[in-house]
Design brief:
7-stranded parallel sheet, single chain, Rossmann fold, 6-stranded parallel sheet, alpha/beta, 42% helix, globular, 2 domains, 15% strand
């Protein structure tokens, strides 16, 4: 099956954290003998059995786009780039779809990449993250997407169940909506932990924006400052935010650095995000590594964290303080960690498992297109 795989985020090299899950899926798909994969992504490590089909001008623009933080960050930042960069993306994609027609199916990552599809043609599988749903409120986006879905078979795949309802409301009369969780690299399942119970170390791995941090600093200050607890914050600064002196801020880190330096000695992962999340990949990786989770009580987190079993869902500072105290008890921490890893193995699996889920949907799409 000839698949055209499109994404606007991709790691530049093996130490780059950006778009790592897009790379993992591409490698898992390319390993299959029943898939011939052509990739249009920012420049980066390409699977041995896949073809990179972006032109030099496209590669240059995509590299610059990644350097500026990606298309979603560019749109959030405002200014001329918030309008001009999406227009350039749509133009590049239109040219791509015009020249690459000898395919069986499109695998398009993110809703916006489907907008320039020809009015009639090959079936399309479209993946969706939580931030994509905000696009549906932008004028003409929903109408443009419905136009390209009317004359082809389409399956829309959010990476979390909570997005199925809104997507069915928007496109359920034209497309099949099916949640498909991403996979997990086996390295996370193999990681061994050795936390220091006398000096609890808690991790926050996130892009630094107001919505992604949520009330983290406000709630954590009385619980961490001046105590033996340590709060380690990891991720790129995408908004100009002050980081308190009592927070250990490390900047961005590669998956290898997380696995080797941070995860083994951590008590758990904290996310108090108020952002429109899909199914945060770092939470799944942490759970595979037997790290309990403390998370804000929102649909994206409730779909992952089983409250009082694999972690705690918190909607106020007292619940947050209680979660920290309980998970700093070694037997509780160990039990929650083991339960987390068991759930992830059973419900999510590896990237090979994820690739199989998508190939099953490819087969269904082709059958619908031929019916």
């Amino acid at each position: 099956m000839r698949v055209l795989y499109v994404a606007t985020s991709y790691p530049a090299d093996n130490s780059d954290w950006r778009g790592v899950f897009i790379k993992h899926l591409a490698f898992a798909l390319a390993e299959r003998e029943d898939i011939e994969l052509s990739m249009w992504t920012p420049p980066g490590p390409t699977p041995p059995h896949a073809n990179s089909i972006s032109t030099p001008p496209e590669n240059l623009w995509l590299r610059q786009l990644m350097h500026s933080g990606g298309i979603a960050h560019t749109m959030r930042s405002g200014g001329a780039g918030a309008l001009l960069q999406p227009i350039r993306l749509l133009r590049f994609l239109r040219k791509l779809f015009e020249r690459e027609q000898d395919i069986d199916l499109y695998h398009l990552n993110w809703l916006q990449t489907a907008i320039p599809l020809p009015g009639k043609g090959q079936p399309a599988l479209i993946t969706v993250l939580g931030t994509d749903l905000k696009l549906l409120g932008v004028p003409l986006v929903r109408q443009s997407l419905r136009r390209v879905m009317r004359k082809r078979a389409v399956t829309i795949c959010p990476n979390a169940e909570w997005m199925v309802g809104p997507l069915r409301s928007a496109f359920g009369d034209l497309a099949t909506i099916e949640a498909v969780p991403f996979g997990i690299d086996p390295v996370w399942f193999e990681l061994e932990r050795a936390p220091d119970h006398d000096n609890p170390k808690w991790l926050v791995v996130t892009r630094l924006t107001r919505d992604k941090l949520g009330p983290l600093f406000e709630w954590s200050r009385p619980l961490f400052e001046g105590s033996n607890r340590q709060l380690h914050l990891i991720g790129p600064m995408q908004e100009a935010l002050p980081v308190p002196a009592w927070v250990h801020y490390h900047g961005s880190a590669s998956p290898e650095q997380l696995a080797q330096r941070f995860f083994p000695t951590a008590h758990g992962l904290i996310t108090l995000s108020e952002h429109a999340e899909g199914r945060p990949q770092v939470m799944l990786e942490a759970m595979a590594a037997r790290l309990p989770i403390i998370a804000s009580d929102m649909p994206a987190h409730a779909g992952i964290v089983e409250d009082h079993a694999t972690g705690f869902l918190c909607n106020n500072v007292s619940a947050y303080a209680s979660a920290l105290a309980q998970l700093e008890e070694p037997p509780v921490n160990q039990q929650f960690g083991e339960t987390s890893r068991t759930w992830v193995k059973t419900e999510i699996g590896t990237w090979t498992d994820c690739a199989q889920r998508y190939v099953n949907l490819y087969t269904q799409l082709k059958a619908r297109a031929c019916a």
